[in-house]
């Protein structure tokens, strides 16, 4: 794809990765992704903002064929899907200067072996004038690495945000179709940004005074209506979860499945939204998405050998990393001859300081009393949600 004009002298560049199906060797990408780079041409200087993942090298190199001079190469984020082509770009434009945040400098040297003399660090709030195009650098740490920053093109009121506000969404549309991009943006937020919710809250306050016409991220389409994604983020980073329970579970002989089915029904009867995920088949990206809103997690697991099922272990570990807005946790499941399931799950989730609500563990197939205990668990979850005031 050739460079595409956004406004006069500002162009989208980069690569659409239609066929990528996994990010970080972890999260499924049902819609592919893109690595957006941008070109800003002033009357005196030219700046290239970020590069592309090296797997799409040939696309960027072809686009650069028609760009004889670049004066500044700006790196908003040192992760390789945006910085991986920096060495080759700097080689191609030997007089160019690489601009990055202070924390990014050593990261770029270590990750990409960029010669120190090619790098100039910029301060938070610093501006460069390209000639009728002014870029202001704004530090936005922890979206989602410590060195991240964004650039604000004041004449055109475009905010270039790299990962911040991005979506894993491959599309030939330059601008976001809001009905299409919301789920991929939420999936992206869930995996990448959610653990840094508090930092993102601060960064959103920091950019609030800016008058923004467009948000141009480095994954997914550009937002011509910035309010759409800013409002979505304001919801996702807020402290209040929703009236929602996530139930990642696995069952070997159907006892745990029967318990999960009963809990789903019991919670639904009480007006609580429920998202059960059979971990044998589940898309963990969907689990991450529901984790953005869930107030409660109930892990369903049988005992495998002496511990919880490895698939449940994997899911609980993922939850402990992604965190979300969870407030309550419980465990349900069955065992054959012993169980340490509750202890394992609660110790893994302990750093999240969740309130653990009465686990229900039974030997073999659940009996009437076990179903009553599950109803009691559903009732307590519903009460806790009501007390919290979730919607
Ligand atoms: Fe898209 Fe953190 O890299």
What does this structure look like?
With 391 residues, this protein is α/β, with parallel strands linked by helices. Helices cover 35% and strands 25% of the residues. The protein is built from twelve helices and 22 strands. The protein has a seven-stranded mixed beta sheet with strand order 1-2-5-6-7-8-9. Strands 15, 16, 17, 20, 21 and 22 form a six-stranded parallel beta sheet that branches. Strands 10-11-12-13-14 form a five-stranded mixed beta sheet, with no helix packed on it. Helix 5 (178-193) crosses helix 9 and helix 6 packs antiparallel against helix 7. The relative contact order is 0.10. The chain binds MU-OXO-diiron (FEO). MU-OXO-diiron is lined by residues 77, 79, 81-82, 144, 163, 219.
Key attributes of the depicted protein:
391 residues; alpha/beta; Metallo-beta-lactamase, Chain A; Rossmann fold; seven-stranded mixed beta sheet; six-stranded parallel beta sheet; 12 helices; 22 strands; 35% helix; elongated; binds MU-OXO-diiron
């Amino acid at each position: 794809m050739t460079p595409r004009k956004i406004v006069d002298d500002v162009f989208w560049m980069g690569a659409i990765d239609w066929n990528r199906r996994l990010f970080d060797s972890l999260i499924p990408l049902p819609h592919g992704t893109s690595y957006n780079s941008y070109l800003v041409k002033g009357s005196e200087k030219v700046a290239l903002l970020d590069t592309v993942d090296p797997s799409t090298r040939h696309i960027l190199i072809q686009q650069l064929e028609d760009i004889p001079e670049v004066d500044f190469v700006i790196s908003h984020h040192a992760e390789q899907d945006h910085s991986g082509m920096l060495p080759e770009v700097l080689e191609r434009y030997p007089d160019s200067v690489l601009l990055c945040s202070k924390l990014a400098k050593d990261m770029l040297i270590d990750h990409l072996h960029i010669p120190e003399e090619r790098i100039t660090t910029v301060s938070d709030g610093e501006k460069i004038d390209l000639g009728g195009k002014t870029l202001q650098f704004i530090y936005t740490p922890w979206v989602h690495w410590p060195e991240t920053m964004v650039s604000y093109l004041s004449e055109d009121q475009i905010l270039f945000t790299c990962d911040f506000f991005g979506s894993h969404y491959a599309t030939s549309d330059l601008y976001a179709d809001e009905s299409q991009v919301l789920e991929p943006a939420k999936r992206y937020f869930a995996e990448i940004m959610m653990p840094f919710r508090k930092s993102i809250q601060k960064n959103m306050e920091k950019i609030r005074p800016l008058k923004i016409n467009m948000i141009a991220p480095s994954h997914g389409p550009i937002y011509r209506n910035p309010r759409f994604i800013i409002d979505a983020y304001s919801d996702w980073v807020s402290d209040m979860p929703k009236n929602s329970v996530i139930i990642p579970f696995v069952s070997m002989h159907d006892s745990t499945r029967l318990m999960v089915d009963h809990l789903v029904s019991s919670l639904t009867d009480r007006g609580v939204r429920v998202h059960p995920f059979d971990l044998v088949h589940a898309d963990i990206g969907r689990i991450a998405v529901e984790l953005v809103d869930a107030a409660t997690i109930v892990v369903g697991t049988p005992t495998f050998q002496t511990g919880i099922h490895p698939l449940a272990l994997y899911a609980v570990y993922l939850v402990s990393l992604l965190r979300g807005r969870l407030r309550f946790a419980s465990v349900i499941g069955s065992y054959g001859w012993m169980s340490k399931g509750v202890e394992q799950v609660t110790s893994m989730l302990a750093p999240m300081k969740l309130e653990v609500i009465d686990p229900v563990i039974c030997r073999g197939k659940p009996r009437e009393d076990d179903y009553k205990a599950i109803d009691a668990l559903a009732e307590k979850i519903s009460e806790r949600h009501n007390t919290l005031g979730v919607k």
